[in-house]
Design brief:
Layout (H helix, E strand, L loop, with lengths): L12 H6 L1 H14 L6 H14 L3 E5 L2 H11 L7 E5 L4 H9 L3 E5 L21 E4 L11 H11 L2 E5 L7 E2 L2 E2 L6 E5 L13 E5 L2 H11 L3 E3 L2 E2 L10 H11 L2 H19 L21 E4 L3 H10 L29 H9 E4 L7 H18 L1
Parallel strand pairs: 2-3, 2-4, 4-5, 5-8
Antiparallel strand pairs: 1-9, 6-7, 8-9, 10-11, 12-13
The structure holds pyridoxal-5'-phosphate (PLP).
């Protein structure tokens, strides 16, 4: 063992201690208002997030999965429809499509940036295709110009899965503002995270915003009058109040993530067979995750763990090989890039408040590993 304190994969402690005083005051304020659902904090957050994301409307919902699911429902997508999703995403993107009764159609990412490859779109659409869900994976924006052009030319909707990339952009235009409706997750570990489950949608369409608001609130616009068969998926006052506090720090925290990532990239360049993350010239990367790839992934992960460094794998099994999707009849080899990524990717520790020394220690353990293994 090293004699150092263990380096966790993620630690929200330092971020929270920066705003602890404000969060405690806000907690008392919200408590004293005695209003917990559909109150002032939620509407203030929705306005502030719209300004941040440069969109017309934000609607807070219960979580990121619901944000995706409600977006599909609001666009009228359901049984008999097909929706294009990346083959290497987190399962929630795919589940949302299944929940509305549509069929997820996987397309491969490119091996350089790990985002959905727009060149693969044409071969994957059928008469049933209704929408594309680009996922800004690990915090880097997809090529939204190509995706939107393709969607427009083919009459498809675009729903961005912006769970990992708040504040990222393509050609200077923010993720979450390109699609017809866009889904955000504010799960605690996301770049903008609440203290529990939370999510939201962003859109420039008042009509779609209203539809989502109604669907998420029992199908009701006026209390006890139900226009459609809706759901209950609302952002609550406490979570909204925390998100308002954290939103003010998001870009400063993003810069910290980017600095830590560039330190990693500097120290790990040329080490072993490591493939480091690359950022497309037109994209910005907000480093929700810093993901490297190596053929010795499991050995490296075990070695790091023995030396006191915790890493995670995003994601060990691609959606098409998950037991939940056994009925889609996919087999190993159907999506080789997603499979390659799932067997070689390793996410290194990265959080707001992580020190340069901690990054240096992770890198020196990795260098030790490769010196003794090659
Ligand atoms: C986290 C995440 C979601 C789901 O968000 P929840 O708030 O956990 O429901 C969806 N898509 C991606 C890519 C995610 O990382």
């Amino acid at each position: 063992m090293t004699g150092y304190e263990r380096i966790p994969f993620m630690n929200l402690g330092p971020m929270h201690s920066m705003v602890m005083g404000q969060m405690k005051l806000k907690f008392e304020e919200v408590l004293s208002k005695n209003e917990y659902i559909n109150g002032d904090e939620v509407s203030a957050f929705e306005k502030e997030y719209s300004i941040f994301n440069r969109v017309g409307y934000t609607v807070g919902v219960g979580n990121g999965l619901d944000a995706l699911r409600l977006s599909l429902l609001a666009l009228g997508i359901g049984p008999g429809d097909e929706v294009i999703v990346p083959s290497n995403t987190f399962i929630a993107t795919v589940l949302a499509v299944s929940h509305v009764g549509a069929k997820p159609v996987f397309i491969e990412p490119d091996l350089c940036f790990y985002n959905l490859d727009p060149n693969n779109l044409a071969a994957s659409i059928t008469k049933k295709t209704k929408a594309i869900i680009p996922v800004h994976l690990y915090g880097q924006s997809c090529d939204m110009v190509s995706i939107n052009n393709f969607a427009k030319a083919n009459g498809l909707f675009v729903i961005e899965d912006n769970a990992q990339a708040h504040g990222s952009s393509y050609n200077g235009i923010l993720t979450g503002s390109w699609g017809d409706i866009n889904a955000a997750s504010f799960y605690p570990g996301k770049n903008l995270g609440a203290l529990g489950d939370a999510g939201g949608i962003t859109t420039n369409s008042l009509d779609l915003a209203n539809k989502i608001r109604t669907l998420a609130n029992y199908g009701s616009r006026v209390k006890y009058y139900n226009d459609v068969i809706g759901y209950n998926s609302r952002l609550d006052e406490f979570q909204a109040s925390i998100l308002r506090i954290k939103l003010k720090h998001l870009m400063e925290w993003t810069e910290q993530r980017q600095n830590l990532a560039s330190k990693y990239s500097h120290l790990l360049s040329g080490v072993g067979d490591l493939v480091l993350p690359k950022t497309h010239v037109s994209s910005t990367h907000v480093y929700h995750l810093y993901v490297v790839r190596t053929k010795k992934r499991s050995e490296l992960k075990d070695y790091l763990s023995r030396k006191g460094v915790d890493c995670l794998i995003h994601y060990p099994v691609p959606p098409h090989l998950q037991k939940a999707y056994i009925k889609l009849n996919y087999k190993l080899g159907d999506y080789p890039i997603a499979e390659e990524l799932s067997s070689t990717s390793l996410s290194l520790p990265l959080w707001v408040g992580m020190s340069n020394e901690q990054v240096e220690r992770v890198c020196s353990v990795i260098k030790d590993f490769f010196t003794s293994n090659f």
